[in-house]
Design goal:
Length: 347
């Protein structure tokens, strides 16, 4: 990996194929990976799984980037989600060269979220704020003229939602109901249960939601109880933000609406997120292979009908435990409300 001279840094900043990838506050560096536009569209997750798709690496000092003259660009739009709610499908549908570049779970956004999460004093918080401006500006660089960037972070970075919302960034909150969330955890097996516990531990570091639960109490909870609390943590936060009087730039979307009315939903999402994708393109997408194949497994046929059939069978097989966890979760509040339907629906 190379370090950058001033001239090289200016070249990196001017070239959108250099994607900011990893934030290292300990070493005060940001690592960049090189991607062409087509690779970014095809890469499902731009996190620590991207090594094989990167043509080159380099890194730059944070202080040099903070001092660099980076041209201001329209801020990226954001799709924030609770997980297991067709967010990858939504991003694939909205990725239209020349209109929208959809970045799925960039590692740098998780690094930024942790910079805020771990800020122990005002200096650290000020640094996180300055990094937010630089990182989002770097991510907003278009590969093609008139292209807008749309970012879907991992849901572990949802602590950024209040921060982004105060800056007027257009945000769409994508979610599903608790029962469906729990069914997805059951379906995905032991590895998913491990991930849910990891995300819960991340959320517990925030000053809202599950942070009110003592760690010793959390250790006694089952995997599905942990999953239910993680879902509530996110829904309560989204709900509070949507109810804020200054939330005209925020909308919610139950993913079932996307599956049931794809063309109408995509058009409404494009309008709200200011993506300017034409109606004909969105109609073609809604009736094309994006909605007929698995969004995470290339070439595997999978559509809304098959998903609904599998989910119904899974819920029937696990109805007793799903009923039990749902009843338990309804009696708990983490400090806010978790309505079945979030306010300010997209359509």
């Amino acid at each position: 990996m190379t370090s950058l001279s001033k001239t090289a840094l200016d070249d990196i900043v001017a070239d959108p194929t250099w994607l900011p990838h990893r934030l290292d506050l300990g070493r005060r560096t940001i690592t960049f990976g090189r991607f062409d536009r087509d690779t970014l569209s095809k890469t499902t997750f731009l996190d620590n799984r991207i090594d094989g798709t990167v043509s080159a690496w380099t890194e730059a000092p944070i202080d040099a980037l903070l001092d660099a003259k980076i041209p201001a660009r329209p801020a990226p739009a954001f799709l924030l989600h609770t997980s297991y709610c067709c967010s990858t499908l939504m991003m694939r549908a909205l990725d239209v060269p020349g209109r929208t570049l959809a970045l799925r779970e960039p590692e740098i956004i998780m690094g930024l979220s942790n910079a805020y999460r771990m800020a122990g004093d005002q200096n650290a918080l000020n640094l996180a704020e300055r990094l937010r401006g630089v990182i989002l500006n770097l991510l907003a660089r278009p590969h093609l003229e008139n292209e807008r960037v749309l970012i879907k972070p991992t849901n572990a970075a949802n602590n950024l939602a209040p921060i982004l919302s105060t800056h007027g960034v257009p945000i769409l909150f994508l979610y599903g109901d608790l029962r469906g969330f729990l069914a997805s955890v059951i379906k995905k097996g032991e590895s998913c249960r491990t991930i849910v516990r990891q995300i819960y531990r991340v959320f517990a570091m925030d000053k809202i939601g599950v942070s009110v639960i003592p760690q010793r109490d959390a250790l006694a909870l089952t995997d599905l109880q942990i999953a239910a609390l993680s879902w509530r943590h996110q829904i309560e936060m989204f709900n509070a933000l949507l109810l804020n009087p200054d939330s005209a730039h925020l909308r919610s979307l139950n993913f079932q609406t996307l599956l049931n009315r794809p063309a109408e939903t995509l058009q409404a999402a494009s309008d709200h997120l200011k993506l300017n994708i034409d109606v004909e393109t969105l109609n073609t997408t809604a009736n094309g292979p994006v909605f007929q194949t698995d969004s995470k497994e290339e070439g595997r046929r999978y559509d809304a009908t098959q998903r609904a059939r599998e989910e119904a069978a899974l819920m029937e097989q696990n109805s007793e435990v799903l009923d039990l966890i749902e009843q338990w979760a309804r009696k708990i509040s983490l400090g806010g409300d978790a309505p079945a339907n979030l306010p300010k629906p997209l359509i």
